[in-house]
Fold this sequence. Notes:
The complex is a heterotrimer. By secondary structure, chain B is of the alpha/beta class. Chain B has helices at about 20-35, 60-70, 85, 90-100, 115-125, 140-155, 175-185, 215-220, 245-250, 255, 280-285, 290-310, and strands spanning about 50-55, 75-80, 105-110, 125-135, 165-170, 190-195, 210, 225, 265. In chain B, α5 (about 115-125) links the parallel β3 (about 105-110) and β4. Chain B is globular and about 55 Å long. The relative contact order of chain C is 0.21. Helix content of chain C is about 25%, strand content about 30%. Chain C has helices at about 15-30, 50-65, 115-125; strands at about 10-15, 40-45, 70, 95, 105-110, 130-140, 150-155, 165-170, 180-184. By secondary structure, chain C is of the alpha/beta class.
Amino acid sequence: MEQDLIVTNGRIIDPASGKDEMGSLRVHDGHIAEVVWGGDALSGEGARVIDAQGGWITPGFIDLRTHLREPGEEWKETVESGAHAALAGGYTSICASPDTIPVNDEASVTNLIRQRGEAANAARVYPVAAATTGQRGENLADLGDMKAAGAVAVSNGERPISSARMMRRVMEYSRTFDLPLMTSSFDLSLSEGGLMNEGLLSTIMGLAPIPSEAETIAVARDIELAALTGARVHLSRLSTAGSVRLLRAAQKRGLNITGDATPHHLTLTEEANKTYDTNTKVFPPLRTEQDRQALIEGLRDGTLSCVATDHLPQNIADKELEFVYAQAGILGLETAFPLMMNLVREGVLSAQQVISALSTGPANVLGHGLGGSLEPGAVADITISQPDAPWTPTQETLRSMSFNTPFLGTELRGRVTWAIVGGSVRYALHGSIQ
Amino acid sequence: MEQDATLEHLLGLRHLTPGQIRNILDHAKRFKAINERKIKKVPTLRGTTVVNFFVEPSTRTRTSFEIAAKRLSADTLSFSASSSSFVKGETLLDTARNIEAMQPEILVLRHKASGAPHMLSRAIDAAIVNAGDGYHEHPTQALLDMFTMEEHKGPISNRDVPLKVAIVGDIAHSRVARSNIHGLTKLGADLHLAGPATMLPTAVESLGVTVHYSVEDALKDADVVMMLRIQKERMGTDLFPNDREYARMFGLDKKRLQLAKPDALVMHPGPINRGIEIQPDIADGPQSVILEQVTNGVAVRMAVLYLVSHRGRPAAPVEVQ
Amino acid sequence: MSQAPFSIETTIADSQKVDAILDRLADEILAAHPKCEGIALVGIYTAGVPLSQRLQQRLEAKTGTSVPMGMIDITLYRDDALDGLPSPVVGETRFDFPVEGTQIILVDDVLYTGRTVRAALDAVVDFGRPKVIKLLVLADRGHREFPIEANFVGVRVETSKRDSVKLSLPEIGNETACLKHFQP
């Protein structure tokens, strides 16, 4: 058994218990053993000690949507590199989206991903099962088998399920195995070929537009299907005010539907596309300021319970192209925390709300009781951070294998200093502990 | 209007000041005079290399730029999409970097991807002149259109009654329309667009134009009628049923032209689809200035190449006498 | 223009004296070209143009014939054409007479390095083959950098290279006609 671990001298923010004050905690046998508030020190004999140096002590972050590129595109990211990038961003758990090559639509691929994750010994890697074979939206995939192989949820990934009938079946089948369905809902016929948000800016820039309705129409449909099937549905990467409105109304009706938004949708708008910088090309596209404010309001009032990064590594060869030809995607794991801290510093979200969206909310969506809490008895997945520490994402400082972020070379504020998984210190920014 | 001679690249008209546009048009007048001499040449750009990189092919625009460069005594090189390295899959940036190794001062780029000139302007040293990118902008076309309008109608700015210009066609997919909208509104013209709703881009009224679904409404009392080319590939898709319907509902014929002012100019960026967006007798008729547009294109492009060549040069020397 | 401000200003010729100089120059032209046969006056933009017009008036008064005129803007022919910012406007270049076989008198305000005249010669021959090109200047301030001399000189001014010699004319926006010498 490992030595006990004491984390001390930090601001403990624990959304599960609602507590937010200075304190210390002790980890024993991979679980939180005790939490002490105020300046009282925990007795440290025989224990390893981490001094949080006044920074934040929070549950480890959980990402519902990370695109690890293994199997199939390992030059962009592997399970291992993604799991390490995750820790650097404070993510002690990541859900690997099924858009691999081949698609994660059967247990053999699920096993591969899970095993690679275990071998990496970094963040926990949870495979997510594809909803349909090949993500083609035509036939159900082996959800039961994949769950047995370690899948924690179902997702349609980057491909829509265009047939309402098929989506109904996906919801019913996911429910059969008590797997939450995470869906990025969009109407392909309205979004196909589109490059940026539809509006005056897309007209001026001469780029094929994607209207908000491409998302809201599909969100409305999937809400009704969720009501019909009683499935546990989570709406991924919402980008429009309309979607937040629809979700709020659905929750008022008593439907158990959750939703998330990405850090880039919460902090950037279509204005970022103005220079045709392909690092801002993403799906769903960056939208208007009104949409961004609606997403923030969604987090504030609880309509949105999660932030998910939608981390999507792209090689420079796929980005250094004309805007229309460049692949979409923005890195997210290592920049999520500082971007969310911007919103705290601006006063639009509280520290509690952000930490909840990063950890407790996602834990509740996955519903498997692993993570998202610092209460005694909870598994010791802990993130320690300096919320205002300046750093600049560069090819040297990023741990991901790819560098496609519009924030490359920009100074950000907010950095994770330690990441602990199951009581084991798996990431230390400045070397090791005593 | 205050003149502004600085021009680092010409990526589009959206970000030019009215002063910069005025300056280009005034210079174009002088360059047109050169094109009417026996020796149609000045030594101004001697030793300058202008590369025409036409990834999207266009014989007419490329020839116009080539003539313009040669009349300024510049050396020209032309690359097209069928250049072997491009066909072998070389990316735009790599091809541009290879071209840059020849140290051109100016790169004229035509490309079917909106934003391609912006991308090159960040990556290579040469001054970039946009000869048309996707459906974003085609600044030299709009400039020659405005030059042609002013030759017949006088200055566009500071009129008692603004110049009424009607633009008809597939505005949503037209870079010519966009550049004209930016340029003409900056100079104070009164713009009226007409087309089916499927071909009018989102929020275009916010650019200071009036939008009509009825071409008759747009043409009423117009001083200038500009017909845009309908791309045959777009007929029979979700944008428009067929070209006969288009000709009937939006085509310019004698009856519709009579709604405009009696001395209204008829313009078209070319190439024309006779019988579809414009009837042959109108295209060849007395009000048509379509061929003049082509001639003026050389003068305008000479002005652009001349102005863009000054970029990055040292400050003006002591006055030479 | 990046020059130190001038502290000494000398008027070489006021409005009356400018007129007197032009009268004399007109006589010299007539002496060399009786009845102004076969000649044309071509003013070099900017000040050369109104100067050539003033000379034309005098010659018409003396001979009864109207001397053909032209004007050149040398901006596009300068050897430093691309340095610095482009001048806001390029003036008109045109000849109201056939260049072929004509005796052209180029008219400019100040002759200094000679580069302007070199550019003007290039411009003229692009239009055709004149019989003869002569040069008339109101002031010659020396410091030639090219082997060029004027056939008709209004006044010679001794200057240093840091000086400036400027002709003001109401036709080009100044209050009165006068020729001034500026020294730092």
